[in-house]
Design brief:
Elements (H helix, E strand, L loop, with lengths): L8 H10 L6 H6 L10 H29 L3 H25 L5 H25 L6 H4 L4 H34 L5
Length: 180
């Protein structure tokens, strides 16, 4: 159902007169701030659809790879976090399709939380590099070990900027559809 219900101009004029309003139907329609807001929703729904299916693929891959990577605490948090963000992104998409006014704020909160999680995870690993098992570090040249840790830091910083930044961008894109 659309955000507005169609009503003949004459019927609206009669309702306005009966309520004692001095406004014409055109003035009344122009005074409604939410009228133009819903025009942004189809674009946001498309973005949410792309986002939800991308997240779904990543969440499925995370679940499939979990036995290979191990059921460690960090890996379990990542899988649960991805599943949660994916669940709410499906809801955001549905809300935008239904012209639900809660869609922009829910989308903003969901994507902001996801971006914050990405930033925290990547910055943590940039500051505290993964320790290399002694089996490998004993046979590696020490300069190569330092080089690998430097590349790891740069890798996590790039991921933080690109992935975290793009998710914050999507969050603000959703929020820009919010009525003021």
């Amino acid at each position: 159902m659309g955000p507005l219900i169609s009503i003949p101009r004459e019927a609206l004029a009669e309702l306005l007169r009966a309520s004692g309003s001095p406004l014409t139907p055109e003035q009344y329609a122009a005074s409604l701030p939410e009228v133009g807001v819903y025009k942004k929703y189809p674009g946001r729904a498309w973005a949410a659809a792309v986002s939800k299916y991308t997240l779904l693929v990543v969440a499925i891959l995370a679940v499939v790879c979990l036995p290979l990577l191990g059921f460690g605490f960090e890996n379990l948090i990542i899988v649960v976090g991805l599943a949660t963000v994916t669940f709410f992104e499906f809801r955001v998409h549905r809300y935008f399709l239904e012209n639900n006014p809660q869609a922009p704020s829910l989308g903003f909160r969901n994507q902001s939380a996801f971006a914050a999680a990405i930033l925290i995870y990547c910055l943590y690993h940039a500051v505290v590099p993964v320790s290399i098992p002694s089996d490998y570090s004993s046979v590696m040249d020490p300069s190569m070990l330092v080089l690998m840790q430097s590349f790891e830091r740069v890798f996590y910083l790039i991921i933080a900027i690109v992935a975290g930044g793009s998710q914050f961008g999507l969050a603000w894109y959703y929020r820009s559809a919010q009525s003021r």
